[in-house]
Task: structure prediction
Amino acid sequence: MDSVLIIIYILSSVSFIIGLKMLSHPETARKGNLVSAAGMGLAIIGTMFMYQNEDGILLQNRGWILAGLAVGGVIGWMSAKKVQMTAMPEMVSLFNGMGGACAALISIAEFNHFASTDFTFQIHEAYQNADSIDEAFLVLPVQIGIMVTVLLGLIIGSVSFAGSVVAWGKLNGRIKDKMFKGQHIVNLSLLGMILFLGALLLYNIYSQFVVSQSDIGMLGPLTIFNKIHIKLPVSVFVQFYIILLLSLAYGVLFVLPIGGADMPVVISLLNSFTGVAAACGGFLYQNNAMLTGGILVGAAGTLLTILMCKAMNRSLKNVLIGAFGGSTAVAAGGGTKEQGAFKEISLSDAGVVLGYANKVMIVPGYGLAVAQAQHACHELEKLLEERGVEVKYAIHPVAGRMPGHMNVLLAESDVPYDKLQEMEQANEEFPTTDVVLILGANDVVNPAAKSDPASPIYGMPILDVELAKNVIVNKRSMKPGYAGIENDLFFRPKTSMLFGDAKKVLQDLIAEIKSI
Result:
């Protein structure tokens, strides 16, 4: 039965790898999800009905396990089914937080099981021709490696859970960016305290399993064969739960000051934390499927975090410490300077400019998701192509509220994947573009990133939309974007503002173009 379970775990691991690979393309992403889910289901079933402990006893409490799976499955399915595309980033963050909480709970359960055990050791050694053990200490077996894994799972899982919940609140507007003077010092001190208490806890556990000659008793040259009973003191429990509380507090303070355009990076980083915490659980239980899944999530999240930082031309340290896009963004970067007047365009004029263009580039942003205008956008694209207009989409890596947000949004409306241009490709095409239509994007097209050293986003690669002949920007108002920074593009000579809800504006544009 063990060999069958190993094969099941291998098949599950392979399905995770294949599913992750399929997620790299919109056309296969849905199937990739199903393949990975099938692998996870296979691993769960195999564990429930084939796993045996060292005594050959099968897994118990199957009723509770099935009840938990049913309740969690129904809640997850209903939540995912009802969620709007605009709320997808916060749902991803919340689900990620649940993974971190699960890893932390595993560590809590395993620590309680370990710490409440009454350890009994039989001393078998005989010391001939000696009246003592020469002041040497006898170290009894304790699996410190396992305890290190438990602590890592607790700390990383708790930080991921608390941080993801804060990220969820910030994304849906329930929690505002908050930062106090010296917060970074507080955060680093808190992290140092967690690591110190973790090391102290490991030492205290280890010291309980070290006995001296006085604990054994001597009679002539032979050691009396005594039983040594060890039960960990209450102080060990107290230290463990203090580490838990401090880890939760650190997760909150870690994410609280970060906001704006950095949220996609934070979500990726927290995702990698959850993967590492899950891998700790897999190592703890010697479960290959759990270990593989955790490693894949951790590695993918880490690579994605690095790619997001590279796309913003910033280091991870700068993201975490700089609080870019938070409440200090405007104060830090001249967001209140005098900009002059902007130019507004009517629907009919916009329809004419688009209808008679040779090449149009559409730049989607979070405003498109808010208005749920992706289907209307695809309809406009098809209408323009019927008139002989070449239409493509320019996608910035950090557009939206999570990595790949715009890709998912457009894939939902069946936009062909080959029409989506990455930032480098799009920037090469802007000089030959007649019209750029910006739908709800803001910070990713802000020229201040290239021209204003005082701006918080200075140095971040952007879409060079102003290289096109004409730029039409659709926004609800002139309010700054999510990073809280005024956009210089809106006041440039080539730019025309088209105010209104993106879905309504696109529908009206379609009607105008049809009437030409």
Observations:
- DSSP finds 19 helices and twelve strands in the chain.
- The radius of gyration is 29 Å.
- The CA atoms of residues 119 and 303 lie 43 Å apart.
- The chain has a mean pLDDT of 83.
